[in-house]
Amino acid sequence: MPPSAIVLGAGMVGVSVALHLRRRGYDVVLADRQAPGLGASFGNGGLIQREAVYPHPFPRAMAEILRIAKNQSIDAVYHPLALPGFVSPLLRYWWHSEPARYLDAVQAYSRLIVTSLDEHLACARGTEAMPLLRPIGWMRLFGDQRRLDAAVAQAEVARRDYDVNFAVLDGRALAAAEPHLLAERVGAIHWTDPVSVSDPHALTLAYAGQFAAAGGSIVLGDAATLQRTGSGWRVQGADGPIDAAEVVIALGVAAGEVTQRFGYAPPLFGKRGYHMHYGLRGNAVLNRPILDTDSGFLLAPMRAGIRLTTGAEFARVDAAPTPVQLDRAEPVARGLLPLAERVDDAPWMGIRPCTPDMLPIIGPLPGQPGAWCAFGHAHQGFTLGPTTGRLLAEMMTGDQPFTDPRPYRAERF
Questions:
Q1: CA–CA distance from 88 to each of 67, 94, 118, 189, 251 (Å)?
Q2: Parent domain of 239
Q3: 47: nearest Cα among 373, 383, 388
Q4: For residue 359, is it within any domain?
Q5: 377 lies in a domain?
Q6: First-to-last C-alpha distance (Å) of the chain
Q7: Which among 374, 376, 326 has a CA at the least distance from the CA of 349?
Q8: 234, part of any domain
Q9: 81: part of which helix (H) or strand (E)?
Q10: Per-residue b or e along 331-350, where b marks 16 or more CB atoms closer than 10 Å to that residue's CB
Q11: FRET pair for 375, CA 20 to 30 Å: which of 171, 299, 361, 412?
Q12: What CATH number is given to the structural domain containing 109?
């Protein structure tokens, strides 16, 4: 009989794992409590970020920490009553962001990121997914020349060490590239390698469709029912129990709720994010995604309109949505681009699953033969889904992994 696996979680990571396993001959069931792509994969900036070789570190400068502590910014907000639950993971996050330790994280993180575009193209090329991928990159806008100069210097290092490509635009070139900007900026960095996705949800669905066309099964199921059955695993689906020899836990921030039942409690924490779509007034256009460094939000042209995405919100998992960042960002965004009315009835919210050392957890679940981890990708689950799918499938089938998987092992926590 062919090897079999249940993949729990149908976001970009879970769908990609399921697709890679199916292509390697596994009998795979992809199970989630909702349809594919409706979690954090739904509400991102739609970027496959080949340039993102530097994970987001915890700020080290006291001025930056004090700015965030005021809780008045657009890029980071927090619920005061939730802070006690974040003390331990954030202290570990701060510790791992020390320059020498952060450099180690960059080395491991970049080995995944540099493959991300190729792995997405390997999934999308020749399929209905390909038209969703727009090779237009994205631009980071700067209102201060010193900040732009510092960012260019770091970009030069990324180009030298990780083959990242970019162009620097002064204010005049930026205005020519995006003629409908309403506010002046001193310049921008145009990251030219990344691909912008016109509909992130549609891309996840396209990969899920490939999985189903290859003979994989997509079902509704409850990960909380996961249990061992002899040498295998079982989870309850909407139409009855599902059994397989192996299981992959790709549940994002909820993964820890499942793994702790089997003796593993990773220090995951969530960064909540929001988005809203807008029309544009008159004949205005936005040619590519732009991130305004001074304000900390992203504007991206998508099928549904111009998507405004926020930074990070730290809140209890069960806390009601509080899209204060959108309320703060919207008037600034309207001063940057001629936005029309909101398109969506309500803001969308999702949770990014983060680890203190900024690296995902990919590999065997400690002490549980036949169980595997694929979660903790923070801001880059959409970017790293196919890369993670390939790496984990190679590990599960005994093939030579394309990169050393040890930096991502679960045992490090």
A1: 21, 10, 36, 35, 22
A2: 1-56+97-131+198-268+355-413
A3: 383
A4: yes
A5: yes
A6: 35
A7: 326
A8: yes
A9: none
A10: ebbeebbbbeebeeeebbbb
A11: 299
A12: 3.50.50.60
How far apart are alpha carbons 154 and 148 in whole angstroms?
Answer: 10
Tokens 């992809």, located at residue: 30
90 CB contacts (<8 Å, ≥6 apart)?
Answer: 58, 269, 356
Q: What is the pLDDT of residues 209-257, one digit of tens each?
A: 999 999 999 999 999 999 999 889 999 999 999 999 999 999 999 999 9
Does residue 303 fall inside a structural domain?
Answer: no
Among candidate residues 202, 328, 354, the one with its CA nearest the CA of residue 276: 328
Q: Which amino acid is it at 75?
A: D
In the 8-state DSSP scheme, what is residue 400?
A: P
φ, ψ for residue 75 (rounded to 5)? -80, -20
Determine the Cα–Cα distance for residues 239 and 173; give it in Å rounded to an integer.
58
What is the pTM (predicted TM-score) of this model?
0.95
- Per-residue pLDDT tens for 326-346? 999 999 999 999 999 999 999
Total number of domains in the chain? 1
Structure tokens at 6: 């249940």
Residue 242 near residue 49 (C-beta atoms within 8 A):
no
